[in-house]
Amino acid sequence: MTHSVIRLTTTPEDHRIAQLAAAAIGLALIDAAIPLPLPGVKPGLSNIVTLIVLARYGWATAAWVSALRVIAGGLMLGQFLSPGFFMSLTGALLSLLVLAFAIRLPRRWFGPVSWSILAAFAHIGGQLLLARLWLIPHNGLFYLVPLFSSAALGFGIINGLIAARLLEQMPPSPPASQPEVKNA
Asked: Residue 174 in 3-state DSSP?
């Protein structure tokens, strides 16, 4: 019997995505541990990482980080393919869709805080829509919209402010065309 060796070649971009996804996953686990009075209302701390990635590396990298966070978070929390997983996935997909348009808005007026608010509303909107269509087929669910909207606005502002502050404090990223040089 012949054993073949599979070699995976990774790039610096692969390593960056893995590191950023690990940070987002860690924050998602912290998020899950925070007790909150209403199911579905969470600070969304991992979205801070998504906003930073979006601003520094673009939408495609942010989408990878977000997808890895949802899948790995679902696996680590024992919720993979559960209703909670699909709620998270739906929220993440709608947030990414909105962010794809939001990053094209003029940077003079739009940045991490406005992106965060838009993404938070898309996230909770997607979750409420999925809950209505799949889990709670009753329009009474929409009585919770003001409460969820208030949470989305509040956490969206806070996460956006944190992301903006962290972006200000981060050193500039090296140009994409040149490899990062490390001093020995």
From this structure: coil
